[in-house]
């Protein structure tokens, strides 16, 4: 074929380092703006959990906001996700002693 891949001018990303730096700066500005405007959203995003859009979730979120307890809401869902990740589906069974 051609020797373009061996060229020092070849790049998989069609942008200069300056362009990429500007994009990263824009992302940082966007993150800062979101942190100020919608801090609960950013806390959820930073938790790494998937964003849900179903009606049940929206109702639970509205209730948590009504009670001004987003932190408790987030902790509850983080705990549930940890149970799923650890395949700890039935915590009540761990308390049962089979004799």
Describe, in plain words, how this protein is organized in 3D:
The protein is mostly helical. The chain is built from five helices and no strands. The termini are far apart. The relative contact order is 0.06.
Question: Characteristics of this structure?
Answer:
99 residues; mainly alpha; 2 domains; 64% helix; elongated
Derived structural class:
mainly alpha
> Beta fraction of the residues?
under 5%
Number of helices: 5
Radius of gyration over alpha carbons? 23 Å
- State the distance separating the first and last CA atoms: 73 Å
Q: Sum up the overall morphology in one term.
A: elongated
Number of domains: 2
Low-pLDDT ranges: none
Overall mean pLDDT stands at: 83
Secondary-structure element order, as H and E?
HHHHH
Helix content: 55-70%
Largest sheet: none
Number of strands: 0
């Amino acid at each position: 074929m051609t020797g373009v891949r061996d060229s020092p001018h070849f790049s998989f990303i069609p942008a200069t380092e300056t362009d990429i730096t500007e994009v990263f700066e824009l992302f940082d500005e966007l993150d800062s703006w979101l942190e100020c405007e919608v801090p609960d959203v950013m806390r959820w995003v930073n938790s790494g959990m998937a964003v849900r859009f179903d009606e049940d979730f929206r109702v639970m979120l509205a209730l948590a906001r009504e009670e001004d307890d987003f932190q408790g809401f987030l902790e509850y869902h983080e705990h549930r996700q940890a149970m799923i990740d650890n395949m700890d589906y039935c915590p009540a069974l761990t308390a049962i002693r089979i004799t």
